Amino acid sequence: MADITIDVCGEVCPVPVMKTDEALSKMKRGQTLEVIVDYPPSKENVQRLATFRGNKIIEVKEEGEVVRILIEKA
What we know:
The chain is α+β, with helices and mostly antiparallel strands. The protein contains two helices and four strands, in the order βαβαββ. Helices cover about 35% and strands about 35% of the residues. It has a four-stranded mixed sheet, covered by helices on one side. α1 runs parallel beside α2.
């Protein structure tokens, strides 16, 4: 279970990446963020941003067109 969940379904890049970055910047170390996307490039871009910032991707779960990305704040 994530500490914070953001649903950016229906949004195209760069919006999902920007919202992910904003949420992560407000979080404390060790907290988890779930990002829900449905735009295929967002799946890769959100993960790339998270790891670039030093965070850990815990899980990527694909449910049809919807992808849930669980990130742990570093």
